[in-house]
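Methods — Computational structure assignment.
A single polypeptide chain was analysed. Its primary sequence is given first, followed by the predicted tertiary structure written as structure tokens.
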Amino acid sequence: MIIAATVRAIKNKVYAETRTVEVKIGDKALIDTEHGIEAGVVFEKIEKLEKTDKDLFVGKVIRILNVEDERKIGENENKAKEAFKVVEKKAAEYGLDMKLTRVQFTFDRSKLFVYYTSESRVDFRELIKDLGHRLKTRIQMVQIGVRDESKMIGGIGICGRALCCCGFLKDFASVTIDMAKDQDLSLNTAKLSGVCGRLLCCIAFENDYYKELKNGLPLIGETVSTPNGKGKLAAIDCLRRILTVEFVSRQEKEFKQFPVDVIKNLNPKDKKDQMEVK
């Protein structure tokens, strides 16, 4: 059996063989990864892993975390806070154009990951030598993007809930403004952007659902048949399954809402097929 788990501050996904260790979803486990021994949370069990990437590393589950392991993790977190101050101070001394996000030790403290953001390339060779000498461990600098930074730090979204990237969202998908158009959202980028300054991730992972809901519905501006006669479709509320139709009478416009089920001849493809049958 192979499991997928999240490890490190950036919540990277790793795969590992369980061997004789019994694990279940949600378990905290000690895993031997390509970066060393790390603690992770199991979120998926896989019977067979298709290795599309020949360089994909598959580690091994060492054991389920015990009380002593939890104590050591807490100790590592305290030491990481101390290391953060050292790294931040030294980066300032070397005048490096970088914003430190977080530092994190591997479980056995054989390596320290230093996560940072920067608009330009940073030459941190001297910094690494200095830090290695002071902290007595190997240093790995990891440049991350602003989306990863938000995922790592956390926060509250405009919806009032915890950021999706800090919870269930394992990978970042590409988000486009066309997706917002398909969902009839306001194209004000300030309203469409998350705390990271990029387009909201929910626009991407909700997009397929909106496509499914809109399947078979007419396009805005098309003429539709309603119980009140023919009119032009003005708006679609696909979540409530309600269409707003515009009627023109004596040069006056009137808007009325109807459930999707009472609108006839919605699908343009069906209309074309009916014409071909006739």
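Note: The chain has a mean pLDDT of 89.
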